[in-house]
Specification:
This protein is mainly alpha-helical. A hairpin with an 8-residue loop joins strand 1 and strand 2. The chain has one domain: Glycoprotein, Type 4 Pilin (2-Layer Sandwich). The protein contains 2 helices and 5 strands. It has helices at about 1-50, 65-75; strands at about 90-95, 100-105, 110-115, 130-135, 150. The termini are far apart.
C-alpha cells in the first residue's frame, strides 16, 4: 500500500512539473507569435510610410485603441499600393464593439498603436510609431521595463 502511495505521489509531482512546463511553453509561444504579428505590421507600416510619407495618425489617442483602429483602416486602404496587410495575416478584434476592428495579439487583446506626434517624440526627421501588446495580463503599462507588455521598441531604451 505504501508503495502505491509513493508511486501516486511521484506521478502527481511529475504531472505538476509537466503542466508548469506546458504553461510556460504556451506563454513563450504566444509571446513569439505576438512579436511576429508586430513585425508583420511594422513591415506593412514601412510600405505605407514609403507611399504616404508618414505613418497613419493616431489622432491624439495615448491609450492606442483608436490609433489601432485607424491603423487597421489605413493599412487596408485601396489607395496607392494598398492594401498593405492581408486580413488573414493578422488577427483582429473589436474591443470596444464600435464596428472598427483593431489588430490583435495572441491573447485576443487589441494591439496599441500611437503615432510619434502623440507620444511627444518631436525630434525632426524621426518619424516613428509605437506598436505594442499589453501582454498576458491584459494591462496597458506603456511598455515599461518591468511590465509584460510586448512593444516594438527596446524596453531598455524607450526613446529609440
Amino acid at each position: 500500500m505504501t508503495e502505491l502511495l509513493v508511486v501516486i505521489a511521484i506521478i502527481a509531482v511529475l504531472a505538476s512539473l509537466s503542466l508548469t512546463g506546458l504553461s510556460y511553453a504556451r506563454r513563450v509561444s504566444n509571446e513569439r507569435a505576438t512579436l511576429a504579428t508586430i513585425k508583420v505590421l511594422e513591415s506593412a507600416l514601412e510600405r505605407y510610410e514609403t507611399d504616404f510619407h508618414d505613418y497613419p495618425p493616431s489622432d491624439g489617442d495615448l491609450d492606442g485603441i483608436a490609433g489601432a483602429e485607424n491603423l487597421w483602416k489605413c493599412l487596408n486602404t485601396e489607395k496607392k499600393e494598398g492594401p498593405y496587410v492581408k486580413s488573414g495575416d493578422v488577427k483582429t478584434v473589436d474591443s470596444n464593439n464600435n464596428g472598427d476592428p483593431e489588430p490583435a495579439d495572441h491573447w485576443n487583446q487589441p494591439l496599441r498603436y500611437v503615432h510619434h506626434r502623440d507620444y511627444q517624440n518631436r525630434t525632426p526627421n524621426k518619424r516613428t510609431f509605437r506598436l505594442m501588446s499589453v501582454g498576458i495580463d491584459g494591462v496597458h503599462e506603456n511598455g515599461n521595463r518591468s511590465s509584460d507588455d510586448i512593444p516594438n521598441w527596446n524596453k531598455d531604451k524607450p526613446d529609440q
